[in-house]
Amino acid sequence: MNEKDMGTDLEKVLISKEEIDAKLAELAAEIDKDYAGKDLLIVGVLKGAVMVMADLARALSTPVTMDWMAVSSYGAGTKSSGVVRILKDLDTDIAGKHVLIVEDIIDSGLTLSWLLSNLTSRGPASLRVCTLLRKPEAAKVAIDVTYVGFDIPNEFVVGYGLDYAEKYRNLPFVGTLAPHVYGG
Ligand code: XMP
Ligand code: MG
Prior knowledge:
The chain is an alpha/beta fold.
Protein backbone atom coordinates (compact mmCIF):
# COMPACT_ATOMS: atom_id res chain seq x y z
CA MET A 1 0.00 0.00 0.00
CA ASN A 2 1.37 3.43 -0.79
CA GLU A 3 0.44 7.07 -0.49
CA LYS A 4 -1.57 7.04 -3.71
CA ASP A 5 -3.81 4.17 -2.50
CA MET A 6 -4.86 6.17 0.54
CA GLY A 7 -6.90 8.54 -1.56
CA THR A 8 -8.24 11.41 0.52
CA ASP A 9 -7.92 9.59 3.87
CA LEU A 10 -4.32 10.66 4.36
CA GLU A 11 -3.59 14.24 5.32
CA LYS A 12 0.18 14.13 5.05
CA VAL A 13 3.27 11.96 5.34
CA LEU A 14 4.85 12.77 8.69
CA ILE A 15 7.83 10.40 8.60
CA SER A 16 8.99 8.73 5.40
CA LYS A 17 10.16 5.14 5.02
CA GLU A 18 13.72 6.41 4.44
CA GLU A 19 13.65 8.44 7.68
CA ILE A 20 12.32 5.43 9.61
CA ASP A 21 15.05 3.15 8.17
CA ALA A 22 17.81 5.62 9.03
CA LYS A 23 16.50 6.14 12.56
CA LEU A 24 16.18 2.40 13.25
CA ALA A 25 19.78 1.91 12.09
CA GLU A 26 20.87 4.58 14.62
CA LEU A 27 18.85 3.04 17.44
CA ALA A 28 20.13 -0.46 16.59
CA ALA A 29 23.73 0.75 16.79
CA GLU A 30 23.08 2.19 20.25
CA ILE A 31 21.36 -0.98 21.41
CA ASP A 32 24.22 -3.13 20.03
CA LYS A 33 26.68 -1.03 22.02
CA ASP A 34 24.64 -1.07 25.25
CA TYR A 35 23.94 -4.81 25.25
CA ALA A 36 27.29 -6.07 23.93
CA GLY A 37 28.07 -9.48 25.44
CA LYS A 38 24.61 -9.78 27.03
CA ASP A 39 21.62 -11.95 26.17
CA LEU A 40 18.80 -9.68 25.12
CA LEU A 41 15.10 -10.46 24.89
CA ILE A 42 13.11 -7.98 22.85
CA VAL A 43 9.40 -7.84 23.59
CA GLY A 44 7.07 -6.43 20.98
CA VAL A 45 3.70 -5.05 21.94
CA LEU A 46 1.11 -6.32 19.47
CA LYS A 47 -0.12 -5.33 17.07
CA GLY A 48 1.34 -1.89 16.50
CA ALA A 49 4.98 -2.80 17.12
CA VAL A 50 5.13 -5.56 14.50
CA MET A 51 6.87 -3.42 11.87
CA VAL A 52 9.28 -1.78 14.32
CA MET A 53 10.20 -5.19 15.79
CA ALA A 54 10.78 -6.74 12.37
CA ASP A 55 12.94 -3.90 11.07
CA LEU A 56 14.78 -3.12 14.33
CA ALA A 57 15.58 -6.80 14.95
CA ARG A 58 17.12 -7.08 11.49
CA ALA A 59 19.14 -3.90 11.98
CA LEU A 60 20.69 -5.29 15.19
CA SER A 61 23.97 -7.21 15.19
CA THR A 62 23.36 -8.45 18.74
CA PRO A 63 21.72 -11.88 18.73
CA VAL A 64 18.31 -11.53 20.36
CA THR A 65 15.35 -13.66 21.27
CA MET A 66 11.90 -12.25 20.54
CA ASP A 67 8.63 -12.50 22.40
CA TRP A 68 5.28 -10.75 22.11
CA MET A 69 2.57 -9.38 24.33
CA ALA A 70 -0.84 -8.13 23.38
CA VAL A 71 -2.56 -5.64 25.62
CA SER A 72 -5.69 -3.66 25.07
CA SER A 73 -6.38 -0.16 26.28
CA TYR A 74 -8.16 1.52 23.40
CA GLY A 75 -11.00 -0.46 21.87
CA ALA A 76 -11.72 0.95 18.44
CA GLY A 77 -11.43 4.60 19.49
CA THR A 78 -8.50 6.98 19.57
CA LYS A 79 -8.14 7.73 23.31
CA SER A 80 -6.37 5.65 25.97
CA SER A 81 -8.62 4.49 28.79
CA GLY A 82 -5.78 3.64 31.16
CA VAL A 83 -7.49 0.31 31.79
CA VAL A 84 -5.18 -2.36 30.44
CA ARG A 85 -6.01 -6.01 29.81
CA ILE A 86 -3.52 -8.69 28.81
CA LEU A 87 -4.84 -10.34 25.65
CA LYS A 88 -1.71 -12.41 25.13
CA ASP A 89 1.01 -12.84 27.73
CA LEU A 90 4.69 -13.60 27.12
CA ASP A 91 5.60 -17.21 26.31
CA THR A 92 8.85 -16.88 28.25
CA ASP A 93 9.79 -16.34 31.89
CA ILE A 94 11.74 -13.06 31.99
CA ALA A 95 13.21 -13.49 35.50
CA GLY A 96 16.93 -12.67 35.36
CA LYS A 97 16.81 -11.63 31.69
CA HIS A 98 17.72 -8.36 29.99
CA VAL A 99 14.44 -7.19 28.50
CA LEU A 100 13.80 -4.42 26.01
CA ILE A 101 10.19 -3.50 25.32
CA VAL A 102 9.66 -2.37 21.74
CA GLU A 103 6.73 -0.02 21.15
CA ASP A 104 5.29 1.70 18.13
CA ILE A 105 4.13 4.80 19.98
CA ILE A 106 3.89 6.31 23.46
CA ASP A 107 0.91 8.61 23.64
CA SER A 108 -0.46 9.21 27.17
CA GLY A 109 2.05 6.65 28.46
CA LEU A 110 -0.67 4.90 30.47
CA THR A 111 -0.36 1.57 28.66
CA LEU A 112 3.41 1.46 28.95
CA SER A 113 3.42 2.58 32.57
CA TRP A 114 1.13 -0.33 33.41
CA LEU A 115 3.25 -2.72 31.35
CA LEU A 116 6.47 -1.60 33.03
CA SER A 117 5.17 -2.29 36.52
CA ASN A 118 3.72 -5.61 35.41
CA LEU A 119 7.02 -6.77 33.86
CA THR A 120 9.14 -5.35 36.71
CA SER A 121 7.24 -7.58 39.14
CA ARG A 122 8.56 -10.62 37.21
CA GLY A 123 12.15 -9.84 38.21
CA PRO A 124 14.05 -9.16 34.95
CA ALA A 125 17.81 -8.39 35.20
CA SER A 126 17.05 -5.11 33.41
CA LEU A 127 14.07 -3.54 31.72
CA ARG A 128 14.21 -0.75 29.16
CA VAL A 129 11.97 0.74 26.51
CA CYS A 130 12.50 1.50 22.82
CA THR A 131 9.78 3.33 20.93
CA LEU A 132 9.64 4.54 17.36
CA LEU A 133 7.32 7.45 18.17
CA ARG A 134 6.47 9.53 21.21
CA LYS A 135 3.99 12.38 21.70
CA PRO A 136 5.49 14.56 24.45
CA GLU A 137 2.44 16.85 24.61
CA ALA A 138 0.10 13.92 25.31
CA ALA A 139 2.05 12.50 28.26
CA LYS A 140 -0.04 11.83 31.37
CA VAL A 141 2.67 9.92 33.23
CA ALA A 142 6.43 10.38 33.12
CA ILE A 143 8.21 7.36 31.69
CA ASP A 144 11.90 6.80 31.33
CA VAL A 145 12.37 5.77 27.69
CA THR A 146 15.92 4.86 26.73
CA TYR A 147 15.56 4.69 22.94
CA VAL A 148 13.23 7.12 21.14
CA GLY A 149 12.92 7.38 17.37
CA PHE A 150 10.89 10.53 16.87
CA ASP A 151 9.03 12.99 19.07
CA ILE A 152 5.91 13.96 17.14
CA PRO A 153 3.08 16.48 17.58
CA ASN A 154 -0.11 15.48 19.39
CA GLU A 155 -1.94 14.25 16.29
CA PHE A 156 -3.41 10.84 15.53
CA VAL A 157 -1.01 8.98 13.26
CA VAL A 158 -1.30 5.80 11.21
CA GLY A 159 0.97 3.56 9.17
CA TYR A 160 4.03 1.42 9.85
CA GLY A 161 2.04 -0.78 12.23
CA LEU A 162 -0.27 1.92 13.56
CA ASP A 163 -3.94 1.67 12.80
CA TYR A 164 -7.17 3.49 12.80
CA ALA A 165 -9.92 0.87 13.34
CA GLU A 166 -7.41 -1.79 12.18
CA LYS A 167 -6.73 -0.05 8.87
CA TYR A 168 -3.54 1.51 7.46
CA ARG A 169 -1.09 -0.70 9.40
CA ASN A 170 0.66 -1.73 6.18
CA LEU A 171 1.62 1.75 5.05
CA PRO A 172 5.44 1.86 4.85
CA PHE A 173 5.50 5.39 6.32
CA VAL A 174 3.87 7.25 9.22
CA GLY A 175 1.17 9.72 8.23
CA THR A 176 -1.65 11.75 9.70
CA LEU A 177 -5.27 11.05 8.87
CA ALA A 178 -7.60 13.63 7.43
CA PRO A 179 -10.01 14.75 10.21
CA HIS A 180 -13.06 13.58 8.21
CA VAL A 181 -11.87 9.96 8.62
CA TYR A 182 -12.17 9.97 12.41
CA GLY A 183 -14.89 12.56 12.69
CA GLY A 184 -12.56 15.39 13.79
P1 XMP B 1 -1.05 5.30 25.48
O1 XMP B 1 -1.94 6.53 25.37
O2 XMP B 1 -1.52 4.38 26.58
O3 XMP B 1 -1.28 4.57 24.10
O4 XMP B 1 0.40 5.70 25.61
C1 XMP B 1 -0.52 3.50 23.71
C2 XMP B 1 -1.13 2.72 22.58
O5 XMP B 1 -2.20 3.42 21.94
C3 XMP B 1 -2.15 3.35 20.55
N1 XMP B 1 -1.99 4.72 20.00
C4 XMP B 1 -2.11 5.05 18.70
N2 XMP B 1 -2.39 4.31 17.62
N3 XMP B 1 -2.20 6.24 16.26
C5 XMP B 1 -2.43 4.91 16.41
O6 XMP B 1 -2.67 4.25 15.40
C6 XMP B 1 -1.91 7.07 17.30
O7 XMP B 1 -1.69 8.26 17.09
C7 XMP B 1 -1.87 6.44 18.59
N4 XMP B 1 -1.62 6.89 19.82
C8 XMP B 1 -1.70 5.84 20.65
C9 XMP B 1 -0.97 2.45 20.26
O8 XMP B 1 -1.43 1.13 20.05
C10 XMP B 1 -0.11 2.51 21.49
O9 XMP B 1 0.64 1.34 21.74
MG1 MG C 1 -3.73 0.67 18.06
